[in-house]
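One record is set out below.
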Amino acid sequence: MPSMNRNDTLNLISKLSFARVWNGLKVLSSFYISRITRKPVQWGLPISISFEPTTSCNLRCPECPSGLRAFTRPTGMLEKDFFTTTINDLHKHLLYLIFYFQGEPYLNPQFLEMVKYASSKGIYTATSTNAHYLTESAARKTVESGLDRLIISIDGTTQEVYEQYRVGGKLSKVLEGTRNMVKARKEMNSKKPFIFFQFLVVKPNEHQVNEIRKLAREIGVDEVRFKTAQVYDYANDPNQLIPVNEKYSRYQRNSDGTYRAKNKLANRCWKLWHANVITWDGMVVPCCFDKDASHPLGNLRDQPFRQVWQSDAYKNFRASLMMSRKNIDICSNCSEGVSVWQD
């Protein structure tokens, strides 16, 4: 699970129940048994799932299939009825619900209604946004929805730097939306959502790392977190995105000027045991690295979740990963999921 501050951690703990703790223990033990036996064993149901509100986005970020309009799968909006049916099936065991995959969640007109429904089931809810649609009204509705965590993507402290990655975006809109959220939370006397800036560190903005911390303090967000960028053609880095400071990079520079991944790609992945992703149209895929849903493991329009989770397709994918993770395309450029607890 992601790292959290004290108040946010206590909020997450408050969502625990006997059924969720017991489910978590089953999932964790099956993960370790699988590592020991080298055979995929899966007990319990996911601790965390990601639901995709939409594939639509207002920006054109250079390493994002949604921004590049590069999907081969259909685009569309998650429907509330389908969402609530799935949540009704899983909520007793589900602790953490992530409302993003591809696209901008606030473009789905039913997004906050779905957040509110999940919150009513005692599930910890989180989303990530580019903050261009956080008007005063939307900010108040966000607080009312019960959303627990709001990640605001902000990849520059000046418009010139920000738009080099967030192509088509306006930094002024991001700052305005953030201030609206901080104001709404204060006026409504709410501790939620936990708001933080997520700064995707790339070469054009790495010199602004200290500036974003200062800006966050001035506005009143709870925290700043820095994220390393996934670069598809990292060996050559054609868009010049890999930072000079390797602290903020998933890659290391070779003597010939090319790059290699830092990750040694151990043949295991905690995410394949405790979490998954559901696309807007019901497709179940292994994780957030399968952006184009090229490894479908089932579709909830055709079969119940439990059947997909224990299917031969899922078992075969887990087995393949344990045999040779580097030979799976979505896993070969992945820096996550190796350990139970992430750095």
